[in-house]
Specification:
Blueprint (H helix, E strand, L loop, with lengths): L2 H11 L11 H9 L23 E5 L15 H13 L4 E7 H4 L8 H16 L3 E8 L1 E2 L2 E2 L10 H4 L1 H18 L5 E8 L9 H18 L6 E3 L3 H4 L6 H4 L5 E5 L1 H4 L10 H4 L1 H12 L15 E6 L8 H17 L4 E5 L28 H13 L20 H12 L9
Parallel strand pairs: 1-2, 1-10, 2-3, 3-6, 6-7, 8-9, 9-10
Antiparallel strand pairs: 4-5
Length: 424
């Protein structure tokens, strides 16, 4: 399914400014690693002091159980404390938090002190629970809804207009003022799949991204700053080049079998779905390069699965847990460093969302740990803090042609998977 068609239809319809109970080799593998050394009491060093990109970390994309991210305007500290306690109990060590841009910056020259105060409070509450934060800045769309600032510029103008840049810079500097007082900050994420909201040609996007990262490094030189795009810039020409995206210290990927097209090539438990993270990490590394290795890829490039889930409504909790286990273990075998599951809590059905958005959490909306939450905890306890092991397998050259079909053929070849309907 094309995510842009889903988001566009949402915009037209509303104007908004296991272990799963089974016996398997996978289960045995997780259980065998859940030793006394890797229990829930494992002391997670704050990333701010230990910026080690080559040790595994496990976290979630936070979705507040009460009032979703509308909570920035309807603040309830007690509810947030309960959410964070539940997340910490799953063994998470970090959260990705999403700022609704027009709430924080309704005017190009002004950032709301009230919302900055609420961000400060959230970061403090997270720090008390040893949860580090990546702060996602330009959230123009989220879960199918658009949140555009009143001073918005569309398309390429978002990346080239002087007024837009001045507004973006003000926002970054105001956020950095709050974040600099904390010791549980990972860094900035440019935006939530920013290319789904503001598209342009890659040369334009690359120049803006380089300028923005320079600003982020200026205001937070200790952070790891990333650009959380969806899968499209990796599969085709879209807004940012894969080479530019892969040039930073840590590269992120968003992996969903439903959105990425995996189901065209097999079922939810087949390699195109369970090895999607592993294959995309390899694809990313094929575009990366280092000094003497320029143009030849970087087989040891740190990769972060910043968003991942199936988004397949038909799966039961047990099946979702099975997929999570298989997908994470395959990604670990392929040297993926960090994992941030989408998302923490199911969305309250009093809100109008696409139906697939309601049940993506590790916890229900009222805080019950789901089967996938139990698997997440066991994986986190088993692997958190362990060194990343990079695969010895030679890194293939990137696809010759950059389009959806060519990129998928490349990944299927890497998986050694022949789709059941191939040749029909």
């Amino acid at each position: 399914m094309n995510r842009r068609r889903f988001i566009s239809s949402s915009l037209r319809s509303a104007a908004v400014g296991s272990l799963a109970s089974r016996s398997s080799a996978w289960a045995d593998r997780v259980m065998s690693l859940s030793t006394a050394r890797f229990t829930a009491s494992y002391a997670v060093p704050p990333l701010r002091r230990e910026l080690d990109l080559n040790r595994h970390r496990f976290g979630v994309n936070y979705t507040p159980s009460k009032n979703w991210w509308f909570c920035w305007n309807e603040w309830d500290v007690d509810s947030i404390k309960r959410d964070l306690d539940g997340i910490a109990s799953l063994g998470a060590d970090h959260l990705r938090i999403l700022l609704i841009w027009p709430y924080f910056q309704p005017n190009p020259k002004w950032v709301s002190p009230l919302h900055l105060e609420r961000l400060d409070q959230l970061l403090t509450l997270m720090g008390e629970r040893r949860l580090d934060a990546v702060v996602t800045v330009f959230t123009g769309q989220l879960s199918g809804w658009y949140f555009l600032p009143p001073f918005n510029k569309t398309g390429s103008a978002f990346y080239t207009d002087d007024m837009m840049w001045k507004a973006q810079e003000i926002f970054i500097r105001e956020l950095a003022r709050v974040m600099s007082a904390k010791d549980n900050i990972i860094g900035f994420d440019v935006g939530n799949e920013i290319n789904t909201c503001w598209s342009t040609e890659p040369p334009v996007g690359d120049v803006w991204m380089k300028k923005l990262f320079a600003l982020m490094e200026e205001v937070d030189p200790r952070g790891v700053h990333v650009n959380g795009v969806d899968e499209l810039p990796w599969f085709e020409s879209n807004t940012f080049s894969p080479q530019a995206l892969a040039s930073g210290p840590m590269t992120v990927m968003h992996c969903y079998p439903y959105w990425s097209g995996s189901l065209k090539y097999g079922g939810p438990m087949d390699p195109p779905s369970t090895k999607l993270m592993a294959a995309m990490a390899t694809l990313i590394r094929s575009y990366a390069s280092t000094g003497a290795n320029a143009g030849a890829g970087d087989p040891r490039k740190p990769v972060w699965a910043e968003e991942f889930n199936t988004c397949i409504e038909a799966l039961t909790e047990t099946q979702q847990a099975e997929w999570l286990e298989k997908a994470v273990l395959a990604a670990i075998d392929s040297g993926v460093s960090w994992f941030s599951y989408w998302d923490s809590h199911d969305v309250d059905r009093k809100f109008d969302f696409n139906s697939l958005e309601y049940s993506l959490g590790l916890l229900t909306n009222d805080g019950r740990v789901k089967q996938q939450g139990k698997i997440f905890k066991q994986l986190a306890d088993a692997y958190r803090g362990k060194p990343v092991v990079f695969p010895p397998r030679p890194l293939p050259a990137p696809p010759v042609n950059r389009n959806q079909d060519a990129s998928w053929r490349w990944m299927l070849d890497w998986m050694a998977w022949k789709p059941p309907n191939a040749g029909k």
